[in-house]
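Hey, can you fold this?
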Amino acid sequence: MSFKDILHQQKAVDIITGQLISGHVPHAYLFLGPDGVGRKKMALELAKSLNCRANDGKPAGAAGGCDHCISCNKINRSLHPDVQLIDFQWQARLENKDIEKQKTIKIDTIRALQHEISLKPSEGAWKIFIIDPAEKITTEAANCLLKTLEEPPRWTIIILLAKHKENLPSTIVSRTQTIVFCPLDSGIIERYLVANAAVDSARAHGIAAIAEGSLSQALALAAGRDADSEELWKELIAAAASLRKLLSISQAQAKNAPDFLDGLMLQSSNCMRAGRLNMAPVLEELLSARKMLERNANPQILLDALMIKLQRHLLTRNLQ
């Protein structure tokens, strides 16, 4: 992979490559945008460019890493000791707990990160730490991280990945260079699914329409089992007359709210493609709920409210 493989983010690519060419690379970045639009790819490509061994220890510049040297290969395989992804999986290993129990980035995780930062690079010229999802960092952890952002070691770059700037403390945002990653055009996602995910054109069109510009969300929808989401859709339609039954469904699905909403969006989109244009209000409610979930809304309260709204739409439309 190289910078040119990061789809539809030319402005972000130009900023990063320009900094590499000039030799003025900030010690802290905030990459803003939805999942699956190239934020993590950009962070890893930056790490490869800085540590690539094909240029005698000098940054690789606009071309990016060579993808062939031992450093680039290790980064591609997540094995480079100087490039670390600080995410829920990393935190789970640190705590020796299940990843399912990880809901926030905690202060002990940031303290462990600070210890790693204090050590000089062991193989490369730079140490790069990618924090994802940065918006899940607790207030006390953010305050702890602030000290490092203010005075980072000269060999360190910290990259925060977040969907919404509003979910981060302003003190953190002000000490990073923000680079915005735009949602991908639905046509780009549709073509990618057809070419790379063995999805037929009609289904790819439907998935791209509800993926909200996120390639990873589109791939997850493409990989999802249509039969399961179709059964849930039928269950929802059958329960439309009973709010009690609808709330029972929301209670059962609260722990799996993202996949539940994605499945319903896919099925409602399928109905619209089949000519049921009266599905538009239902799809709008589902899309709105999905966005609120991304902004840390309580899943149970969100789904309960959604069921109340959907009941009105379902009862006034012939959706069987």
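Oh, and this one too while you're at it.
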Amino acid sequence: MELLQMAKRLDVAGIGVGPFNLSLAALMVPQAQLNSCFFERRPRFDWHAGMMLPGTYMQTSYLKDMVTPVDPASRYGFLNYLVDKGRFYRFINAEYTNVRRVEYADYMRWVSEQLTNVAFSSDVQEVTFDGHDFVIGFANRPSLKARHIVVATGLLPHIPEWGRVLGGEHCQHSHGYMHAQHSLAGKRVTVVGGGQSGAEIFLDVLSGRRGVVSELNWITRRANLEPLDETPFTNEYFSPDYVREFYALPEADKRRLVVQQKLAGDGVSPVTLRELSQALYENEFLNTQAVPARILPQREVVAMQRHGGHFQLTNHNGFNGARERLDADEVILATGYQQTLPKCIAALIPRLVHDQEGGLVLNQDYSAQWDGPASNRIYVQNAGRYTHGIADPQLSLAAWRSAVIINSIAEKPLYATTPVPPPLTWSHAREEGGRQARA
């Protein structure tokens, strides 16, 4: 691409192109004074293809897309995507409250295909610091230098310790569920994990799309199938003002609040819960061949062993303290994801500041604290749950966070990042300061 031929030194280099760096790349385009390029080892944009189940919806408003919250005139917005595809009126007339996940993935792919500052099939092997710049080495192209880097390589599947040894075709993490081709017909299937992914996979298996199973179980540590809290005031947790207030809190308070607010970002969509209840009803009372299907709340898997051609799971029942055993031919782990820094920045990791739990310490502008010069920054996206709050891994504030990072790189406000105050006053001191400023 022309940019790579022209620029030996970038203002900012992005490592990884998922939704967050895609947003940043799109918002960088109008800022011609900043030289940027974002590198992705895959040949094209690909977002959770392994969980693109039929009929699933986004949990985030389509207006909170890659750019609109900070640049509604951008040509990379979701509404412009609809116009470009010729289906704006059809979409509006269909009265979608939420967008199908497959359509939103296509929207993001559409954005990626228009950006000239994104380089796919560019495998970053190593990032070092030479005292003045970050030096980025590739497997398949010449090295480049950059003043700043933005790391957004995503999360890795979390595999519980009891499941690591026995992984394989018949014990897989949910992130690859749609890639699995083998039939489940006649199999005893167990899903582990009580969030949205677990619910969607349970529904899909129950539907018989991959064959009618002989038994279906769903294990969750949660006390019940708890709904995602999408109410108006809970949504204020996903606002710029709350993120700023949260950032100023002591670390212990932040960790307490993250646990307390779990269902604001990690519950099951109420629509999915209704579908689940109806599917169980229809399976039991209306189907001529009902599948034995059970939801097992307050269970924690403590061990899993292979017995011949199947697995045996040992569960602790938190409701009555009992020890339970369950046999399964297929185990699907909807056990979430974990933060892991990419191997390519291994040389920089010892220079980063970590908290007592081993997490990165991020500044308010999402740059990681490190022992290098302040004129060179390492921004990390989707690593600030305990510094910036529960909105950090969600798409809701992707555009706003991108704007914060761009303003930090430019060292001036290129984008407005301070909207009007919310209806909730989180800090009395903030309120008093605002009154004095207006006086």
